[in-house]
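Moderator note: this is an archived Q&A kept for reference. The question asked for a predicted structure of one protein chain; the sequence and the answer are reproduced below.
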Amino acid sequence: MNYEEAVLEAPPTAVAAAPVADEMRAELSRVVGSPDFPASARNRAFLEYIVERELAGQGESISAYAVATAVFGRPELFNSLLDPIVRIEAGKLRRDLETYYLKSGAGSRWRLTVPRGAYRPELRPAPQHHGSGPVPAADGPLPADPRAELRRVLDSPDFPATPRNRRFLEFAAEKVLAGHEGKIDPYDIGTEVFGRPESFNPLTDPIVRIEAGKLRRDLETYYLKSGRANPLRLTLPKGGYRPEFVPA
């Protein structure tokens, strides 16, 4: 069953008021149509599905089971306690929405959100004074020093990486700073950062590749927030795990 069929079959409760519905639908269109919304095609369908359910007055029926079977193609026997696909993808979707509103969506009057703990979308007014205004000046210029940049990233509350991915970044960056970048490979990261056994095989266990994707997005978020005035950018180019320190 696709998500259009699921919306039509679910019994309506209270359909969203017309002005609110119009605003939410317009905001959805702006988000999914923007190149600054980095969600996968599947997660765009996820967002469209839950918004359309909400607009049809069926927001209370949005559950992990409904999303998994209607959007992610899981079978009727799907059990969210055994298969965390919806929870994982919802986390990615929230971060993709944040990225959009830090970029071209910064000037929007509205914020389309998926609050944590559930999958029911909300349309909220944009916070006052939100936007890409000037960054408060530091006490003197920041040093263009790679190790100092690493510490700025890791110490910032605007760097949303998990503790595990902070260790990933620190491990790889310290290898570069020590001149050992040739030793940065998925096997070393998997065993030394993620606790995989010596039998770890990156070809059959994609943990490093998956977490590297999250880490790249966390770095982007940091540099869209308090890091945007830094003299350096710490990046993790796609296709490898060797961090680079590049001038801003």
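Archived answer notes: Residues 3-125 form one domain.
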